[in-house]
Amino acid sequence: MSKKRMSFRVVCCFIALFLILAVSGCGLFIETIPKGEIPGKAPEDRYVMIDHVNYHYLEYPGAGPDIFLLHGFASSTYTWEKVIPYLTGQGYHVWALDMKGAGWSDKPKDTTYDTITLMREVNRWMDVMGLKHVVFAGNSLGGAVALLMTLEHPDKTDKLILIDSAGYPIKRPFVIRLAKMPFAAEIVRLFFGRWVVKRTLKEVFYNDAMVTEEKIDAYFSRLSTENSLYANTALARSLDFDALSSYTKRIPEIKNRTLILWGKDDAWIPLESGYRFSKDLANEKLVILPECGHVPQEEKPEQTAKIMIDFIEGR
Fold this sequence. Notes:
With 315 residues, the protein is of the alpha/beta class. Helices cover 43% and strands 16% of the residues.
């Protein structure tokens, strides 16, 4: 085969790939949502600028105690939207934050996204909001931040609610392992689309029927914001269990009343981690939800909310 014909075929292959990506709504052809814009913004959507980062959060005022809800990896305040009405119905003052790099918050490139840095930034946000002695509920990565906050800033937390929490070494999910590959950010940007979101959600849910078009759209829109893919790749690359080992060794020091809530069929952080938290925490209650995956607050919101409320009220 002549070099001329070979070059022609290579060009044709690139053109074909370009067209396939274009018509499938992948990476380079996805419209980016500018920072600071929230489609369908609600009255509870708020922003605050702290250290040059514009943080998005939700606030639902109430006469009861402050409950602070913190999301996991590649997630946002959206993950709590089905649980919040039950909590506000009890009169609690509910807060939920998009950490730097997540949801509708800014996703700067000139920064780091490791867990300890995120914890320090959450603490700074709580200072600005004037929050202390909150009921701190964290899912996945948010649970790890809750644990670090309890150890480093005990004045910020009262009761703890760990929902399928990160903390102990585990086998990283595929999407996080992918971030360790060379040129991961560029590859993700090229192929990212609704199909990636759908595939990932089906990993974290036990019941595939819960992965609705509305849910896919909610995650996809937030991951389509400016610098989102960069921020999530940087966060995934920075997940370092060795760096956190000095903290996980101190978990037995925590004396806060703690609810450990786990989806029995969690494919991202297995139930073994839930049992380990139960063993290491002195003042804990472990509740396991059958036929439930990594995000009980989305898959079984009514049950999750009832368990949370009973725990908060001491029932």
